[in-house]
Design brief:
The protein is mainly α and about 240 residues long. It is built from 12 helices and 2 strands, in the order αααααααααββααα.
């Protein structure tokens, strides 16, 4: 990705620390510039195509989607994609860039989901049934669950952090004793749900699922939601 840029910088003839600093600075500026330019173009292009669809143009959907900012929020997913593609050009910082891109993606997905829920709520409120069966509360619960799941200790445990829980107190995450242990999280796969406290959470979910399976009526009334700090709750 940076081959052509390195050829240009080779003509300057600088060496040592200055050359290294110049190259990485130029790469950072290039990546940042690409993120802004591609995001701006993609946002305008997708919006122009979407709002010109006959069905959308003739309905109230166009105004609802615009108000929810679904398109610009979705286009922010371009940034982590560019970061992942360019990460290999930043040497030892590449794993950190990939992790940052993952976190950024999760945050963007959270906002995109929020926009989608707003669209669903807006469309539903325009129907006659909404006066008898409002779903605003249900959507607010969904938004709350999405927000909670990003900050729980389960995520930290997937990266090797030590989680402690004493008595009836909520669990907390302990800091890594040494720098080497801290850096070791780069070698862990956060998608491996057999590590950390995930097996305990999975076991609890299976227990509640198996119990409710024998009571269909109760199972219809009880909802098992995503776990918070202290494990799976049943509201």
């Amino acid at each position: 990705m940076f081959g052509w840029l390195d050829k240009i910088l080779d003509r300057i003839g600088w060496t040592g620390l200055i050359d290294k600093l110049l190259r990485y600075s130029a790469r950072v500026l290039l990546v940042v510039g690409l993120c802004f330019i591609i995001f701006f173009i993609a946002k305008r292009l997708v919006a122009a195509i979407f709002y010109r669809i006959p069905f959308v143009r003739k309905s109230t959907l166009a105004g609802i989607v615009k108000k929810s900012r679904l398109i610009p929020r979705t286009m922010h997913l371009i940034t982590p994609l560019i970061l992942r593609l360019s990460a290999s050009g930043f040497g030892s910082a590449a794993p950190w860039i990939v992790k940052a891109a993952t976190v950024y993606s999760i945050i963007v997905i959270m906002f995109v989901t929020d926009s989608l829920l707003d669209i669903v709520d807006d469309l539903y409120r325009r129907k006659e049934i909404a006066k008898r069966r409002p779903i605003k509360g249900l959507l607010q619960v969904a938004e709350l669950v999405i927000a909670i799941v990003l900050g729980i200790v389960i995520i930290a445990s997937l990266f090797g952090a030590r989680v402690e829980q004493r008595d009836d107190n909520p669990p907390w995450v302990r800091s890594f004793p040494t720098e080497d242990e801290f850096l070791s999280f780069l070698d862990r796969d956060p998608h491996d749900f057999s590590q950390g406290v995930c097996p305990q959470v999975t076991e609890r979910y299976r227990f509640f699922r198996d119990v409710l399976r024998h009571y269909p009526v109760l199972g219809e009334a009880v909802r098992i939601v995503l776990p918070d700090l202290q494990g799976p709750w049943i509201p």
